[in-house]
Amino acid sequence: MVNDRTSIEGRGNLSRALFGWCLFDWANSAFPTVITTFVFSAYFTKAIAPDAVTGTAFWGYAMSASALAVALAGPILGAVADHAGRRKPWILAFTMLCVVTSAALWFARPEASFVVFALVLAAFANFAFEMGVVFYNAMLPDLTPQERLGRVSGWAWGLGYAGGLSCLAIGLVLFVQPEQPLFGLDREAAEHVRITAPLVAVWFALFSVPLFLWTPDTPSSGVGLTQCVKHGLSTLASTLKSVREYKVIARFLLARMIYTDGLNTLFAFGGIYAAGTFGMSFTEIMIFGIGLNVTAGLGAAAFGWVDDGIGSKPTILISLAGLTVFGAAMLIIESKMLFWFFGLGLGVFVGPAQAASRTFMARLAPAHLRTEMFGLYALSGKATAFIGPALLGWVTVAMNSQRWGMATVVVFFAVGGLLLLPVRQP
Q1: Whether 56 contacts 41, CB under 8 Å
Q2: Residue 243 contacts by C-beta under 8 Å, 6 or more apart in sequence?
Q3: What structural domains does the chain harbor?
Q4: Whole-prediction pTM value?
Q5: Nearest in space to 256 (alpha carbons), one of 137, 360, 343, 393
Q6: What residues have CB less than 8 Å from 395, skipping those under 6 apart?
Q7: What is the pLDDT of residues 206-220, one digit of tens each?
Q8: Could you tell me what percentage of the chain is helix, strand and coil, using 3-state DSSP and rounding each to the nearest 5?
Q9: What is the tally of helices (H) and strands (E) in the chain?
C-alpha cells in the first residue's frame, strides 16, 4: 500500500484532490442535519408514530441499533479494507446505500402503519452514513502532510456544517414552510416534509461526485476479497490482543469515548433543556440550533490553524475547557438572552473538539492499520452512547431538576479532558 504524499501528488492535482475530499463533508452532512436531527426525526415522532413519546422511544431504539451495528462492523471492515488497499469502493457502496434508503423515506406516509418501514430505512441509512465516514476519515493522512492535517480536517468539518445547514435551509424555504410548497406538494399527506428525504439523497449523491472523480485512492493490494477478509480478521484480533503496543491510541480512544458521550448528550437534550428551563418555542429552538451549527462550523475551520500550530491534543483540551466553562455558565444563568450568548459561544468549541479528534487519530494511527484504527475510532464514539442520556435522565429524576441533569454533560467534558492529559502527542 502506498502511503507517502509524493506518490499521491503524482496521481492528480493535490488542491483539487483535497477540495474533493473536503466537499464530501459538505455532501454527507445533509443526512444528519435534515434526517436525524431537525426534520425527518421530528416528522416521524409527530406524524407517523402513534404519539410523540412512543415515537421518540422508537426512534431512539432504531438509532441505537444502527450505532451498535457501526460499532461492530467498523473495526472489522476497516481491517479488511487495510489489506485490500483501496477505500473509495467502500465509500461508494455505503454512499449509494445511504442515498437509496434516504430517498425511499419519501414513501413513509403519516400513518402508524409506516412505523416499521420508516425505522428500518432510517436505521440502514444511518448505518451507511456512519460506515462511509470510517473509510472517508482514513483517506486524510494520505492526502496532506502532517503539518497541514489540522487545517484540512477543520476546513472539511466547517464545510460539513455549512453543507448541512444549506440543505436544511433549501428544504425549509422551498418545501416545509410555504403555504404552497414547490411542485404543488400535498400538505395533507405531509409531502412537503417527506420531500426533504429525497432532497438529501440528491444533495449527497451530487456533491459526493468530486471525491470519486478528483481525489486519488491508495492503490489496490491485488489480494482477493476472501484473503483480505481472512487477513483483516486476523490483524484485528492481533491488534486487540496486543493492545499494550497501542496504549497511546487506547488511552486517547477512552478519553474520546467519554467526552463524545458528553457531546452526543448535549445534541440530544439541548433543545429539551432550552424548552423546559428557558421556555423557548420550537421556532426559537430551530433558530438556536442553526446558530449553534454556524458557530461550530466557524470554530472548526478557525481552530484548524491552532491544531497545526500547537497540536491536536492541546486543541482538544482547549475545546473541552471551553465546553466546560460555557456549559457550566448555562447551568447557572436565568436570562434567555444570556442562554443565547453562552449557547452560541459553546458552539465555537464543539466543532474543534470533533475536527481535532479526527486529526489526532490520523496522526496516531499506523499507516498499515489506518482504516482499522478509524473503525475503532467509530467504535469509541458509539460503544457507550447510551450512558450519557441514561445518566442525565436518572439525575434529572433524582434531583427533580433539568439543570442538575444537564450538569452531567459538563462532567463528561471534564473527565474526558483529564483522561486525555497523560496521552502522549506524537
Answers
A1: no
A2: 250
A3: 1-241 (1.20.1250.20), 242-426 (1.20.1250.20)
A4: 0.84
A5: 360
A6: 404, 405, 407, 408
A7: 999 999 999 998 887
A8: 85, 0, 15
A9: 18, 0
